[in-house]
Amino acid sequence: MTIDKRVATPAEAVADIASGSSIAVGGFGISGIPQLLIEALLEKGSDNLSVVSNNCGVDDFGLGILLAAKRIRKMTSSYVGENKEFERQFLGGELELELTPQGTLADKLRAGGSGIAAFYTQTGVGTQVAEGGLPRIYNADGTVKVASPKKHTEFFDFHGEKKEFVLEEAITTDFALLHALKGDTHGNLIFHKSARNFSPLAAMAGRVTIAQVEELVPAGELDPDSIHLPGIFVHRIVEVGKDIEKRIERRTVREA
Asked: In the CATH hierarchy, which fold is given to the domain comprising 10-117+171-239?
């Protein structure tokens, strides 16, 4: 790995993401998503992708454009409610879904990046998350083809009580894609407010992490105390400028 991690274009940044790759993608809804990297991956043509992200964007933006082009084989997500094509493909048996509680998804990514193979959590105990049976793949006729398996549970002394916990395995991926407000040539990143969300965790889980940044500065210019993700987790960085398209999923306004 070189110290200077700059690449010239989003296309160059994603050039080695092959069909069949697994990818963790930062962002929440369409906030803080690596849109230009996603577009470059669409243009590259890689398919049969297994994607880990909080959601799958919307029908014509974010990961939704990969979904519409039938490039995604499996989604591991927490929320899938804003994408009609996602619903159509999942219920029609064209897409596999591993639905995961949001906090658990965050910790599965964090564990993967921290070298922790699995962990116990109370989230999901007593539900289909732990007991199995959540549909993962449907048949075309609407029946369940593949359901989630039963997970191991264990009782532990916790705050003076015996409580049940479910074992969750960590997530690691071949690649991670993320968007940051600012970065330096060593890969240190600063995210903008809520756009920080899942991005540092996705970066940790990816074997090769690629970041698009609005502003790229020389190494040493960022205040160390302001850095949200250290460059050790980032392998490639591409500057995309501040004029990129940013959308709001649901604009809510009131009369003045």
From this structure: Glutaconate Coenzyme A-transferase (3.40.1080)
